[in-house]
Amino acid sequence: MVLLEAGKLPHRNFLSIWKLPELRGIEVTPQHVILGALTTYTEIRNSEIMMREFPLLCRAAAETGSVATQNRGTLGGNIANASPAADSPPALLVYDAELELVSASESRWVRYHAFWIGYKQTLLRADELIRRIRLSRAAPAWQHYYRKVGTRRAQAISKVCFAAAAHMDAGRVADIRIALGSVAPTVLRAVETEKTLRGEILTPANLRKAQEVLAREIAPIDDMRSTARYRRRIAQNLLAEFWDLLST
Fold first, then answer.
1. What is the spatial distance between Cα 104 and Cα 209, in angstroms, rounded to a whole number?
2. Which parts of the chain register pLDDT below 50?
3. Residue 68, pLDDT score
4. How many Å apart are CA 138 and CA 31, to the nearest integer?
5. DSSP designation for 138
6. Can you give the pTM of this predicted structure?
7. What is the Rg, in whole angstroms, of the alpha carbon atoms belonging to the chain?
8. What is the rounded CA–CA span in Å between residue 106 and residue 108?
9. Could you tell me whether strands 172-181 and 160-169 are parallel, antiparallel, or unpaired per DSSP bridges?
């Protein structure tokens, strides 16, 4: 609707998929939680299992727009829009989400990290819809961190969006996942930063090293919302906040 009103989309007939029951519902299995593409942000926030096992996605849902937006906006729509500044994609990357894409002839599952192929470009073909989003249920020992930095505390497009989760074992980072939005042409999984931290203990020197790697791994730009220099520094500061959380 934003693009349409800005004159960047031609006026033509549009088809609403709002009432398709096949795209709705939250399914829970022993291994996965599966969200229909039309699951709204409000439904995500109100889901007990989502709050308990996927808090990053619930936090992202709470940060998205206004209450009206959360009541109507859907997870599948946020994914299909493919904005690198969207609030839910970093959380989806941390949870290693999978997407089911369907057409009249077939359905296929793709990893979310492979779904993006460029700025506002995805693997979604012209004859396909996003049907479901599948999340693997993780052990409860993971610690989660989400932070959106914007001009205002609500209804703002992010300058930097940071999501992360880590599993600690005897003071060492046994496993870690970090993802960011608004710092590259696509939402970014910071795999090199993760490699730098995985297996390490929580020391200031290791944090500084990881911050240096993160600064090289992201590719922020100057635009109307912020500067590349600011975004890079904020990303490093958010990593430090996550580090402090793991240290407590």
1. 49
2. none
3. 86
4. 9
5. P
6. 0.93
7. 18
8. 7
9. antiparallel
Question: How far apart are the C-alpha atoms of 184 and 189, rounded to whole Å?
Answer: 10
Q: Greatest CA span in the chain, whole angstroms? A: 60
pLDDT at residue number 69: 87
Residue recorded with tokens 């995500």 = 44
Instruction: Say what the pLDDT of residue 4 is.
Output: 84
pLDDT at 11: 84
Question: Helix/strand/coil (H, E, C) string of 165-213?
Answer: EEEEECCEEEEEEEEEECCCCCCEECHHHHHHHCCCECCHHHHHHHHHH
pLDDT at 154: 65
Confirm if 234 and 159 have CB atoms less than 8 A apart: yes
DSSP per-residue string spanning 80-91: HHT-TT-SSHHH
Q: What pLDDT score was predicted for residue 156?
A: 75
> In this predicted structure, what is the pLDDT of residue 153?
67
Q: Are 112 and 99 in contact (CB under 8 A)?
A: yes
Q: Which domains does the chain have, with CATH numbers?
A: 23-136 (3.30.465.10), 143-247 (3.30.390.50)
Phi, psi of 184 (to 5 degrees): -165, 170
Distance of CA 54 to the CA centre of its chain: 12
Residues 198/29/133/58 CA torsion (nearest 10 deg):
-70
